[in-house]
Design goal:
169 residues; mainly alpha; 9 helices
Length: 169
C-alpha cells in the first residue's frame, strides 16, 4: 500500500474508526489514542498490504482488536449509567424528552450481549454492509444477520417496556 493508497483507503475511514473505538471504550481521549495507534500500525505496514481486498473491514478489525487489547491490558471497566448520565436542567422539555429517549436507548444497547452490541453498532451506526461486518468480526453473514435481528428485537422489547411502564426491567 503506497502513501496514495493510504490516503485514499484508510484516512477517509478515520472518523468511523474513532466512532467504533468510542463505542467500545466509552472514552473520547482513549478512543483517539487507539485510533492514532491503529493509523501508525497501518502506516508502518503500508508497503506490505497490497493484497487487502476490503480495506475498510480490515481497518475496522484492527481498531476492534486494539480496543480489546487495551481493555485486557488495563483491566478497563465501563462506566456505569450513573457515571455517564449527569442531570442538566438547562434544556427545554422537548430536549429533555429526547435526551431521556437516547439514555434509555443506551440502556437497552448496554444490555445486549457484546457480540450483538458490536454487530448492531457496525450496522446501524456505521452503516456497514453485512459482508463487511462479517469480515470485521470474523463471522459468517448468516451469524451477522441473526445477531442483528436478535439485537433489534431486544432493543425494541426494552424500549416498549419503558414506554408502557416507565421501567427498563
Amino acid at each position: 500500500m503506497s502513501e496514495l493508497q493510504f490516503e485514499q483507503y484508510v484516512l477517509p475511514v478515520s472518523d468511523k474508526m474513532y466512532r467504533y473505538a468510542f463505542s467500545i471504550l466509552k472514552d473520547s481521549e482513549l478512543a483517539s489514542d487507539v485510533v492514532q495507534e491503529c493509523l501508525t500500525k497501518i502506516w508502518n505496514k503500508k508497503s506490505t498490504l497490497t493484497n487487502i481486498n476490503n480495506h475498510e473491514a480490515w481497518v475496522m478489525r484492527i481498531v476492534r482488536n486494539q480496543c480489546y487489547d487495551w481493555i485486557k491490558l488495563n483491566r478497563y471497566t465501563m462506566l456505569t449509567d450513573e457515571q455517564q448520565t449527569l442531570p442538566d436542567t438547562q434544556f427545554t422539555d422537548d430536549t429533555t424528552l429526547l435526551n431521556d429517549r437516547l439514555n434509555w436507548l443506551q440502556v437497552a444497547l448496554d444490555r445486549l450481549p457484546d457480540k450483538q452490541k458490536e454487530v448492531f453498532h457496525l450496522r446501524e451506526i456505521e452503516d456497514m454492509t453485512y459482508q463487511d461486518i462479517a469480515e470485521v468480526l470474523s463471522m459468517s453473514i448468516s451469524d451477522v444477520k441473526v445477531n442483528i435481528h436478535r439485537a433489534r428485537l431486544k432493543v425494541r422489547e426494552i424500549i416498549l417496556k419503558i414506554d408502557a411502564y416507565g421501567i427498563a426491567n
